[in-house]
Specification:
This protein has 270 residues and is mainly α. It is 58% helix and 6% strand. It contains eleven helices and three strands, in the order ααααββαααααβαα. The chain has a three-stranded antiparallel beta sheet with strand order 2-1-3. Helix 2 crosses helix 3 and helix 6 (129-138) packs across helix 8 (195-222). The structure holds zinc ion. Residues 71, 75, 130, 145, 148 line the site of zinc ion (ZN). Residues 71, 75, 130, 145, 148 line the site of zinc ion.
Length: 270
């Protein structure tokens, strides 16, 4: 077992997660009647801890499988291009956990404690990459992107109200925004936000998400060949990782895609 490789696949994991992975891997090896733990056991154990158990009973129809393959490939490509501080290590279209029909594992290349504004824009776009792929390839959306959308909205909201990253709202924390105070004499400890500001906040969140979605679509249109290759590989083998995945992803075109952070700076400078 290559410990360095396991470490590379688990940055940011807490000690308890690692202990969990080792336990799972040992159980998997024992279940297969082996008395040593192998790389494949660790690989499956990491997937289990990150994404939950494989749901073999949840069988996707051919068309659904195709859609999930494109959806996950979209996450992977947009992540690779626009969120390069994290690396796509695995893509799978085997249903796992409570709701996931597929998943793309994108891990930071090192432990991170701070994220920059452009990294957050990249994360947003990567989250919307699945949805964008469905739009680009099938011309319409499916219900599969609901969770992505809610996570993207959460990030965009945090950018506006917690991190002061909206040029329109300004560098003010609105974190206590609209916190209701039911108790007499309790003002909620936060500022009162008027309806107008609340509307502005919503507009800003919407525009951040819309812009990220547009970048995701643009990235996928420019990398259509890689999108096709990835989706095809996934439909064939249900998951891609390691050198096989790298070979396809290394074909992405990064140049010429708008950087929203630079754009913001440029508009602000005008
Ligand atoms: Zn998704």
């Amino acid at each position: 077992v290559d410990l360095a490789e396991i470490a590379a696949r688990t940055p940011g994991f807490a000690g308890a997660d690692l202990a969990n992975i080792v336990n799972e891997a040992a159980l998997l090896a024992a279940r297969k009647g082996r008395d040593t733990v192998e790389d494949q056991d660790f690989s499956e154990a990491i997937d289990r801890v990150v994404a939950g158990l494989e749901k073999k009973s949840r069988i996707l129809s051919g068309l659904e499988k195709e859609r999930v393959a494109y959806h996950e490939s979209g996450h992977a490509i947009v992540g690779e291009v626009l969120a390069p501080s994290e690396r796509v290590t695995k893509i799978s279209i085997i249903p796992r956990g409570v709701a996931a029909l597929g998943y793309t594992m994108q891990l930071p290349t090192e432990d991170r404690y701070l994220l920059t504004e452009s990294e957050l824009h990249g994360k947003l776009a990567a989250l919307l990459g699945g949805r964008a792929a469905e739009e680009v390839v099938f011309g319409e959306l499916s219900t599969g992107a609901a969770n992505d959308l809610s996570r993207a909205t959460e990030i965009a909201r945090a950018m506006v109200v917690d991190y002061g990253m909206s040029r329109k709202i300004g560098p003010v924390s609105m974190a206590k925004e609209r916190r209701p105070s039911f108790l007499p004499g309790d003002y909620g400890g936060g500022r009162e936000v008027g309806d107008r500001t609340a509307d502005e906040i919503d507009d800003e969140i919407k525009s951040l998400v819309e812009r990220a979605a547009e970048r995701a679509r643009e990235t996928l249109t420019k990398n259509r060949a890689v999108l096709e290759a990835l989706a095809k590989g996934l439909i064939e083998s249900e998951h891609l990782e390691g050198a096989e995945l790298r070979k396809i992803l290394d074909g992405v075109r990064v140049a010429g895609i708008k950087d929203p952070y630079r754009e913001l700076e440029e508009t602000a400078a005008k």
